[in-house]
């Protein structure tokens, strides 16, 4: 299949200790495993790094803590912090500590079953300091994190969406509230509308500053509706992204078979972003060529959005549907360097 001329194929890896590198200010936006993957790669670059994290999770240990303590869900914030730990013995140890999940005895009350230690560390700092951002700064210093972790909002958010399903030949429309409920329902149908609650929620000032002051804002990979799109649903965040002088890069997922994205084609992911933030210019899209279902159509959609597509092999050789940090870091570096060397204005 011929690749359109505006597509720039890349080959990874290309990181070399002796290679002269520029320093970029990069803000990565997302949540969960997707943001963890991008941060593990971005921390390998010579960059001033910030992570802006969704706060709408309501499942698992994070959801239970959110309900019982009335705090932001700490899980995605914890994962971002662990991703930024370096490869020293200190960093590797603390990354494991932060991700340690308790397993209780079968005949116990199991009140701690499934809880994650790092969630409690973060909530402890929040209660002691009375400030979500300051608590995360302290946690980052303890871990030796190579960058800042910031909540998208200091309001615990909820996601609400409308899902259309076909039952017995009839289309039915149902509204689902909460990340877990929406993801489960989306697996059975198509999400047609989505929003954040409360509607008057505001962005965290430090997170908005990180978006405005960046050289690059990186969206994705991750669950499209519940980790990536929320950054465009929050008005303050969407406005900051649109008005920032930074360039915007979207990292595509390695699979579209995630529970909430079932049935979405690769190009649909871009269309969703354009629908909810038509004023946002996406400068670049990074995708592994083996994971794009209709490459020609995907590139046409990107071209209509004024977006350059960069193809690179970023999937792990040993774990399917998992980004390789070194490959992804090299691919990010090539995208950033391409725009820098061509002197394209922001």
TrEMBL record:
Its main location: cytoplasm. InterPro entries: CofD, CofD-like_dom_sf, Gluconeogen_factor. Keywords: Cytoplasm, Transferase. CDD domains: YvcK_like. Coiled coil: none annotated. One of its GO terms (molecular function) is transferase activity. It is found in: Cytoplasm. It holds the Pfam family CofD. Required for morphogenesis under gluconeogenic growth conditions. Belongs to the gluconeogenesis factor family. This is Putative gluconeogenesis factor. It comes from Pseudoglutamicibacter cumminsii. The lineage of its organism: Bacteria, Bacillati, Actinomycetota, Actinomycetes, Micrococcales.
């Amino acid at each position: 299949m011929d690749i359109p001329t505006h597509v720039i194929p890349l080959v990874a890896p290309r990181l070399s200790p002796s290679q002269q590198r520029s320093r970029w200010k990069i803000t990565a936006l997302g949540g969960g495993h997707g943001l963890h993957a991008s941060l593990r790669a971005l921390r390998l670059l010579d960059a001033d790094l910030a992570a802006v994290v969704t706060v709408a999770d309501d499942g698992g240990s994070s959801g239970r803590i959110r309900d019982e303590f009335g705090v932001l869900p700490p899980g995605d914030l914890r994962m971002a912090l662990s991703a930024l730990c370096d490869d020293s013995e200190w960093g590797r140890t603390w990354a494991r500590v932060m991700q340690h999940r308790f397993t209780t005895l079968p005949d116990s009350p199991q009140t701690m079953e499934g809880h994650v230690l790092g969630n409690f560390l973060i909530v402890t700092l929040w209660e002691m300091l009375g400030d979500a951002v300051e608590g995360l700064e302290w946690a980052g210093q303890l871990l030796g994190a190579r960058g800042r972790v910031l909540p998208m909002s200091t309001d615990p958010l909820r996601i609400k969406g409308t899902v259309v399903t076909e039952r017995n030949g009839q289309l039915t429309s149902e509204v689902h509230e909460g990340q877990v409920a929406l993801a489960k329902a989306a697996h059975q149908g198509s999400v047609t509308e989505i929003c954040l609650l409360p509607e008057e929620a505001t962005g965290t000032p430090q997170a908005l500053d990180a978006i405005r002051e960046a050289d690059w804002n990186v969206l994705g990979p991750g669950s499209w509706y519940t980790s990536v799109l929320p950054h465009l649903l929050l008005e303050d965040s969407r406005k900051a992204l649109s008005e920032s002088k930074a360039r915007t890069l979207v990292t595509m997922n390695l699979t579209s078979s995630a529970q909430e994205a079932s049935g979405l084609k690769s190009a649909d992911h871009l269309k969703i972003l354009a629908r909810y933030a038509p004023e946002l210019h996406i400068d670049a899209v990074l995708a592994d060529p083996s994971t794009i279902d209709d490459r020609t159509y995907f590139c046409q959609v990107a071209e209509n959005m004024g977006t350059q597509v960069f193809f690179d092999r970023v999937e792990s050789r040993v774990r399917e549907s998992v980004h390789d940090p070194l490959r992804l870091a090299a691919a990010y570096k090539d995208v950033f360097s391409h725009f820098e060397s061509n002197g394209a204005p922001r």
